[in-house]
Amino acid sequence: MKLKSLHIRNFRTLEDFKVELQGDFSSISGKNNAGKTTIIKALQQLLKDTTKQGWWGEREGIAYASAKTQWVKDSPPIEIEYSLIFSKLTDPGIYNFVIKIAEIDHDLGDEFVLKVILRHQEKEDLKQDVYLNENQLEKYVAVEIYKRIESSTLAFFHNSAEVGLNGIFSGGAMRLVQELMFSGDERKELEAEQERLKKKVKKLAGKHRAELSGLLGRLEEKYDVELTVFDRYLSGNVPLGINLKDKNLEVPLSEWGTGTQNRTHIMMSILQANKIKNDTSDLNRVSPIILIEEPESFLHPSAQAEFGRVIRSLSRDLGIQIIITTHSPYMLCQEFPESNILLDRKLFRGTPKQTEVVPVESSSWMSPFSQILGLDHESFEPWQKVIGARKDNAILVEGIIDKEYLEHISSLNIPGFSLPEGIEVLPYQGKDSLKNSILLKFVLDKFDKSLVTFDLDAHNELSRIMSNLGLTEGTDYFAVGIDEPGKNCIEGLLPPNVISAVYSKNYSLAMKSSSPNPADRKSAKNELKRLLLEEFKKQHNIGKPELSGFKKLFTAISNKFK
User: Fold this and answer.
1) I need a surface site. Which of 166, 170, 252, 550 has the fewest CB within 10 A?
2) What's the pTM value of the predicted model, to 2 decimals?
3) Please, what are the domains in the chain?
4) What confidence tens digit (pLDDT) does each residue in 256-274 have?
5) Which residues pair with 2 in a beta bridge?
6) Using an 8 Å Cβ cutoff, are 86 and 95 in contact?
């Protein structure tokens, strides 16, 4: 199942709120009280996590008087409209039920869209309308479909602020548990064992039953005692204690840091969702989505960056929809920025009112990042390709020409001059981009490993910034060029014959590169850079001697990405 869109009216700050979700991963960000938690609560009204019900009771529904938009007059209903996509392959439980209950006599294709509208009115029962591919279903059918959806586990909900609250006492201590859901075939095996276990429990409980009856017999009111096995703990959902090992030492999850506990429970939810999605033996299954409030909680920024990469890649690779709320730039979707949802409150006479979606389009992709980091949009412009990178390792270079040099040399297949697999070479559009240390740190934390390169002529300007970020020269950053006049850049590493060939043919352009006019000087230098690259690519029979100038750079690359 996938959530396609959500339209909410008259619910807290969501006076008339609509959002479209794109892709399998979506983040919802915004300032405090912007409406992030309200959206999650709206989703929970229909998309239940039945694994968190039972012993702990169901989550509260909507109390109209306190939940309605307080500044709206005439008390209109609270209305939540969900647009849900169900697949024949991964959601056969709902797919087949809808076809049967709605008496559909034609093929609905691989998937269909159900629009479910819930209306809460003061002193009135909840009302439901259901549309199948935009066609409204009759009332009886709508109610039955709603009941089926509402009783299904359509979401795994994880609130990072509540990490560690679910547990059982074992050995005198509270142990964190995780519900483990089994596949259809696994449940059949369990059922056979359950029957054997129930008989054993019943036999052993006989003595305890008699003893408890004797004690209760002392009371004036007489009772019959019957001991039963809780079906909850003998069904398809089984609570398991979790231990983690570190350096061969096994430690209960409850004794690890809260950040580790948080990540582990989220990963278990993703595991279970994927297990349900791929359990072809269960014809009643519906693939759930995952809702996570603030997955970055209790994590150091570097751990946030790593965890953000992991859950985004799992969402894409497994085809499981994950929706998060976050205050962390590392949790925003960097690979597809348009899937980030930024919220803000519209001001009326200085007072924040309804929640609105701030447009995040191709021209404003940086809005969620800039709000969280407190930076202007312009700061992000040079970093668009870097932030959108889809690999975990990267070499950052000043411009596209530097990128072409590295990739061309690597394509020559000369030992010692190749780029390691699994990395991207990404241009950041000039040395000035590196001077914003806040943004640079955010960018570097995005990657598992990275190497920053810049021209040697910028070494004095940038080395202190690199050092302040804890980066080591030659390991984390590398100044490209030779410490000689005119060679303190990547072109200074070229074989002498390439340089002489270009400058002899373009004498006037070379003279112009020393012009007192800044625009002329910059234009001439850029043109010479392009001509030098083209001449270098024309060279035949290039070997190690001709590439000797690049040796230190490629050695640094090799050492960094071992």
Assistant:
1) 170
2) 0.80
3) 2-160+285-372 (3.40.50.300), 165-258 (no CATH), 375-495+539-560 (3.40.1360)
4) 678 878 888 888 888 889 9
5) 85
6) yes
